[in-house]
Amino acid sequence: MMELQEALARIEELEKQLEIQTLLADSAFEALGVFDEEMRCVAANSEVTEVLGYSQSEVLGMVILDFVSPEYHQIAKSNVSKEVNEPYFVMGVRKDGSMFPAEVRGRTVSCHGKPCRVAAIRDITFRMNAHADLRASLHEMEIIFANTKIGLMFLQGGRIVKRVNQALADIFGYESPDEMVNLDIRKLHLSEERYEDFGERFFSALAEGAQLNVEYRLRCKDGSPVWCSLSGKAVDTNVPVDLTKGVLWVVDNISARKAEEMRLRRLATTDDLTGALTRKEFFRQVKATMERLSRNPVGYSLLMVDLDHFKSVNDQYGHEAGDTVLQSFVFECRKILREADLLARIGGEEFALFLPETDLGGAIRVAERLRKRIAASVIPTRGGALSYTVSIGVSWNNTRDVSIAELLRRADQSLYEAKDEGRNRIAFYD
User: Fold this and answer.
1) What does the radius of gyration of the chain's CA atoms come to, in whole angstroms?
2) 409-414 long-range contacts, Cβ below 8 Å, gap at least 24?
């Protein structure tokens, strides 16, 4: 009696195991079959209906080659005879004769003491279509990358050029994109300092995943500068971003636009005839400089300059000669002025010079030097060579309680003193 109960319990256990194994087999996403030594199917899972269109009973007795297109029979035979375990590609054949791309994987095992082949065939139509779509998309991207008129540059591994298109090579004066591959990006910066500055100013934003948009001057292959519009985005989507994975930059040459902006800015801020600052722009820059130097003990000075008897120049030699005199005066001023000094045309023949970090003594020396240069100059005109002189008024300040207007008033007062005293001389406000 106990033996019967044990046998029944064993049968129940085997049935459970069979049910689990059948469930596992039928849950697979590929058709599974067991084939004997003659390659005939002796067992199959339910997925054969979905993949091959046969019922489980229909495939029993069919050989493995019945499910493979004839041109792949030799490959299937060879892989079975060689007991190849790696997956391989064939064109599968369904019950209705239609074919589909398939991946086959097999393994030779022992069943009841005899060798048999367990094979799986998977429909990879979706995968193949996805690969085809991906290849098509990559091909489209290649065409766009190569033929877009905007420069594209991919940096990887820490500011190293990995790929560019022809448009970008053209911007920087390289013959081909290949010439720029593996180029250290510092070679596109005007200096090592600007390379470091760019990284400090902008790469933190890229590391946070932001898209960076900036206008910046870079360097061409021949060393000449080029204004560029740069739009950069890291390819890594994590935050913080791993910038070594790459940054894609869209680059456009905006040198022409920048040149036009500078031209328009010059028109708005400088005198058309002489190139000196306009009165408005002069006061704007003087105010900013005065605020910056408000605690500087040296202070700053202002020179008001008037061209002596300028009306007689126009009357005797003509307005064209008068224009030449004004241009000559500005030219002579720039020979002795520093880069930080400001020069403006305040009126018809009246000019102002602002000298930051210059005390009264220094301003008087500059004024006297300028006066002598002008007095010694000779200007050729159609009406003959002419000479002219200037009168100069000087004011100085090193406190915070004097406005631009007051500084100008003091210099103007000194200028009138110089003119009253006979012209071609300097007077200063003390």
Assistant:
1) 44
2) 410/302, 411/302, 411/303, 411/304, 411/352, 412/304, 414/304
Cross-strand bridge partners of residue 418: none
Residue 400 identity (one-letter amino acid) = R
**At which residue do the structure tokens 């045309």 appear?**
345
Handedness of CA 280, 283, 286, 292 (dihedral sign): negative
Residue 343 has pLDDT above 70, yes or no: yes
| Pair type for strands 300-307 and 350-356 | antiparallel
29 vs 212 pLDDT, higher one = 212
CA distance 158 to 390: 60
Q: How many CB atoms lie within 10 A of CB 312?
A: 12
31-35, strands of its sheet edge to edge? 41-44, 31-35, 114-123, 99-111, 88-93
Q: Under a CB-based contact definition with an 8 Å cutoff, are residues 343 and 276 in contact?
A: yes
Q: Cβ contacts of residue 155 below 8 Å, gap of 6+?
A: 161, 162, 185, 246, 247, 248, 249
Using pLDDT thresholds of 50, 70 and 90, give the confidence band for residue 18: very low
What's the whole-number mean pLDDT along residues 186-201?
Answer: 91
Nearest to 318 by CA among 273, 378, 272, 384: 384
Judging by DSSP bridges, how do beta strands 426-428 and 88-93 pair with one another?
unpaired
- The predicted model gives 321-329 an average pLDDT of 93
Three-state secondary-structure class, residue 152: strand
SS3 292: helix
**Closest by alpha carbon to 69, among 104, 120, 30?**
104
C-alpha 368/C-alpha 418 separation (Å) is: 12
Tokens of 203: 């790469």
Domain annotation for the chain: domains and CATH numbers: 28-124 (3.30.450.20), 148-258 (3.30.450.20), 270-428 (3.30.70.270)
What does DSSP say about strands 114-123 and 99-111: parallel, antiparallel, or unpaired? antiparallel
3-state secondary structure 369-388: HHHHHHHHCCECCCCCCECC
Select from 349, 353, 335, 338 the least CA-distant residue to 396.
353
Positive or negative: CA dihedral 329, 330, 336, 342: positive
